[in-house]
Specification:
24% of the residues lie in helices and 42% in strands. It is α+β, with helices and mostly antiparallel strands.
Length: 173
């Protein structure tokens, strides 16, 4: 089962390396953070980068959350398993399915190809955006992202997904 580890935002990679160094592998199957592809325009060129999808959160796949919790106290940077009423906050089966469905190998949410109408509104999308098209609450075509709203970890969250247009694809050729 996946559990959520809260950390200082911006320190995802450093804390992940510390966990891999300090905590015995028997206590967890995998520890990771989910990244998203995003695009930034520099001049006439789109630069593709990766950023945390959920800044300040790591995920640990473990059968022993209590043992992991004890060992996390040895990680020098602020980490904690999220708790709710003294019970460790596990990712529900439905939430885990959603998270697994939107990402590709390496825990990265790839940019989705979108098709636009004349008013520059999205009429079709592939990938994560296509799967959750009905959940789009905001689209910023010029900035190459959309926001979807989804219930996750006990609250409604706005999740940012990167997009690419057919125009971007033609410019590559």
């Amino acid at each position: 089962m996946w559990y959520v580890i809260q950390i200082q935002t911006g320190r995802e990679e450093k804390v992940l390396e510390m966990i891999r160094t300090v905590i015995p592998r028997e206590l967890y199957e995998e520890c990771f953070y989910i990244r998203r592809e995003c695009a930034r325009k520099e001049g006439n060129v789109w630069r593709i980068q990766e950023a945390p999808l959920f800044p300040g959160y790591l995920f640990a796949d473990t059968r022993d959350p209590q043992g992991l919790y004890v060992m996390l106290r040895q990680v020098p940077k602020l980490t904690k398993l999220l708790k709710e009423d003294q019970v460790f906050l596990g990712v529900s089966e439905e939430e885990q399915e959603f998270l697994e469905e939107i990402q590709s190998e390496g825990h990265v949410v790839k940019r989705s190809l979108v098709r636009l109408n004349e008013e520059k509104e999205i009429i079709w999308a592939d990938g994560a955006v296509g799967r959750y098209f009905d959940h789009i609450v905001r689209q910023r075509i010029r900035k190459r992202y959309v926001l979807i709203e989804k219930e996750l970890l006990g609250e409604k969250r706005k999740i940012l997904f990167g997009i690419r247009t057919e125009e971007d694809e033609l410019a590559k050729k």
